[in-house]
Task: structure prediction
Amino acid sequence: MSPNPPGPPAPSRRRLLAGGGALFLTTTTGSLLVARSGGSGRADDDRGRDGRAATPEASPTASAASGWMPGASRIPLERNFVLGDRDAQRGLVLHVQEGEGSLYERFNTPGGKTSSHFWVSRDGETEQYVSVLDRAWAQVEGNGSWASVETSGFATRPLTEAQVDAVARIYAWGAGAHGWPAAVSEHPDQPGLGIHAMGGAAWGGHACPGTLRSGQRAEIMRRVRERLPGGE
Result:
């Protein structure tokens, strides 16, 4: 696996206690990187005063070529990821935020050195911060081969129905656009819907997303198959 840009290697996303809706992340020196969105790193003219905007793409062909999911709120990060540098599309890794609220500001913090492709709120709102053709910094050695999704909430609580459905929508899109197999993965070499914990020490040695959310992958995959052509 190729390293991250010059400087300290990017750590995995940390599962730390959150207070007041914030997720506390490690900060190290990082270099500014530009998002895959017309070269500017920002969603063109729709960005509001808070610097964020939803610019979903309508064309499935365009979404596959760009790595941005139609229907998700497209909010490109300006830093804390690497353009390209994906060596495979094995599937999607499920994470738990251990907190509440959008992670855009935290992931876009200079020097934060952590990020994820997607974030899903308890209500099923989906934000995409990084194209799946680019390397987010979510699971260390797994970053080059896997896309990642953070889910709002805590490991002691299961995904909500809205979250289960939202993750299924993300995965069904990835299956159609990028060839993710409709399967649950239990090992980094097995493509499918995986979890952060399956990577062990090489992925940061986390128990994320916990047994409750890990156990919901079968239901997520059932809904994925329903969405695919010829589904149940």
About this structure: The radius of gyration is 16 Å. The chain is about 20% helix and 15% strand. The first strand starts at residue 18 and ends at 19. The mean pLDDT is 82.
